[in-house]
Specification:
The structure is a single chain. Helices cover 53% and strands 10% of the residues. The termini are far apart. Helix 7 crosses helix 9, helix 13 runs antiparallel to helix 14 and helix 14 crosses helix 17. The chain folds into 4 domains: 170 residues, Beta Polymerase, domain 2 (2-Layer Sandwich), CATH 3.30.460; 76 residues, Hydrophobic Seed Protein (Orthogonal Bundle), CATH 1.10.110.30; 123 residues, no CATH class; 48 residues, no CATH class. The strands form 4 sheets. An 8-stranded mixed sheet has the order 1-10-9-2-3-6-5-4. Strands 7-8 form a two-stranded antiparallel sheet. A two-stranded parallel ribbon has the order 11-12. The protein contains 23 helices and 14 strands. The chain is elongated. It is of the alpha+beta class and 486 residues long.
């Protein structure tokens, strides 16, 4: 891959050369796309560049199957050029100059050079097509996303970097191509995107960019809840999620996204083991991530981050200088529901995260295994499908620095998990139902469908949780005794 960047001497030149060589190898796996598109666009006199996050990820060795291109061809012309070469294409983004398509395993987006203007009231640009690549790159969010690779007619590639994005990538810095204030006035969501890239890439924010975010954080109020939630999700799912959350809080952005999180900085946890509940919660988030056994788990991560947000509202100073947060899990669950609804999360996401927050303290009543089988059943039953996540959350919530205490807590939870597994194997806890169904209840009690059947069903379910499966005769005796007592 050829380059069109200024020469650099010494070790930096070596490192740059290694990265570009590795990127060339990465891009070599995409020759089918580059050869085909390069020939089609060149034949009709148009330029074509791989651009943005695709180039950044190629340099970092993490390029996937989503490929972003930019071109001087108008959107209508792009559609015509792609016809017959791609498997499918659609125009949902054509108002913004973007044509999307699929060829094989690759998802392709091709956007006409842009030189947009913003009204700086909403975040919607007045779409204007540019004439040059430089015009397009200078309007991008960060320099590491303003690199391009020219695709020639034979599919060969030339690296183009007028904004010196490779220098910032080498330094692990997020900087804007122009003044950050201008960039964020154009689109305030870029400020939250900076924290997201901290979480995804592990980069630092340039001091001038950080200063602009601190000054302009309130401009996030111009952005819809849905767009904020989308960026927040990407941040929470990032490899360096803890750093992303901390960047969001330190710059003031969290006040407009998850204000309950920085508010935890004001509280000291009851064990005096952390600076404050805020750092405890970030530690729990990190430990929950470490316990994931597959893809990043958004529900678990949100629950870990938010599990203690009820503490500021429940703080009590106790005799002897102690601090308590009684029922903070109940208050916290309500706060989680309110915040997640405001961010337009799905009903299922809201219920799952809030339930985990509500249940995260239940284990601490287990003591040294004093729970009856009934209590163990209820623990598993109340968690339902969330039980594996609850296991991880409870274990992650152990942040004591006392190694003996930490080991004892983990061993105790090992014991609870074994008891749950044994009962599940014997009783199929995932499908706990009364020993008599509705028809049997109505026949035994001589009643018709209605409220009484529901009450009887609930009584039998509670009995089932308390005592496990019962023989039919015993269940009938208990139901009759309950009915007569009413």
């Amino acid at each position: 891959m050829q380059t069109s960047i200024d020469p650099v001497d010494g070790p930096e030149l070596e490192r740059r050369a290694r990265l570009l060589a590795a990127a060339a190898v990465t891009l070599g796996a995409y020759s089918e796309v580059f050869d085909g598109l390069g020939a089609i666009f060149a034949e009709h006199g148009h330029q074509l560049y791989l651009v943005g996050g695709s180039v950044r990820d190629a340099v970092l060795g993490r390029l996937g199957s989503d490929l972003d291109f930019t071109t001087d061809a108008a959107p209508d012309d792009v559609q015509k050029l792609l016809a017959g070469w791609v498997d499918n294409q659609w125009d949902t983004g054509i108002d913004f100059g973007t044509v999307s398509a699929v060829r094989g395993d690759f998802e392709i987006e091709i956007t006409t050079f842009r030189a947009d203007q913003y009204d700086r009231v909403s975040r919607n640009p007045q779409v204007t097509y540019g004439q040059t690549l430089a015009e397009d790159l200078v309007r991008r969010d960060f320099t590491v996303n303003a690199m391009a690779v020219r695709i020639a007619s034979d599919g060969s590639q030339e690296f183009v970097d007028p904004m010196n994005g490779l220098d910032d990538l080498l330094a692990g810095i997020l900087d804007t191509p122009g003044k950050p204030e201008d960039s964020f006035n154009d689109d305030p969501l870029r400020m939250l995107r900076a924290a997201r890239f901290v979480a995804q890439l592990g980069f630092d924010v340039h001091p001038r960019v950080r200063a602009a975010i601190v000054e302009m954080a309130d401009q996030l109020g111009r952005i819809t809840a849905e767009r904020i939630r989308a960026e927040l999700d990407k941040l929470i799912l990032g490899e360096h999620a803890l750093d992303g959350v901390n960047a969001m809080c330190e710059t003031g952005l969290a006040q407009y996204v998850l204000p309950e999180v920085p508010e935890m900085k004001l509280e000291i946890d009851e064990h005096h083991q952390h600076k404050d509940v805020y750092w405890h919660s970030l530690t729990v988030l990190k430990q929950a991530i470490d316990l994931e056994d597959g893809d990043p788990d958004l529900v678990l991560r949100l629950a870990a981050l938010l599990h203690d947000i009820g503490k500021p509202d429940t703080k009590r100073n106790e005799p002897g200088g102690a601090v308590s947060f009684h029922h903070h899990e109940v208050v916290g669950a309500k706060m989680v529901r309110k915040r997640m609804r405001a961010l337009k999360y799905s009903k299922q996401m809201v219920e799952d995260v809030s339930k985990l927050v509500f249940l995260h303290l239940r284990f601490h009543g287990y003591g040294k295994g004093e729970w009856t089988d009934s209590a163990v059943r209820r623990y598993a039953h109340d968690a339902g499908d969330l039980l594996p996540r609850l296991h991880k959350l409870v274990r992650a919530d152990c942040t004591t620095r006392n190694k003996r205490r930490a080991a004892a807590l983990q061993a105790t939870y090992d014991d609870l998990e074994r008891r749950i597994a044994n009962i599940q194997a014997a009783e199929d806890l995932a499908r706990v139902r009364p020993d008599l169904d509705g028809n049997a209840i109505m026949e035994l009690l001589g009643i018709s469908p209605g409220r009484e059947v529901g009450l009887a069903w609930s009584f039998l379910k509670e009995l089932r949780l308390d005592r496990g499966p019962l023989p039919r005769e015993e269940a009938e005796r208990e139901l009759l005794a309950w009915w007569q007592a009413r």
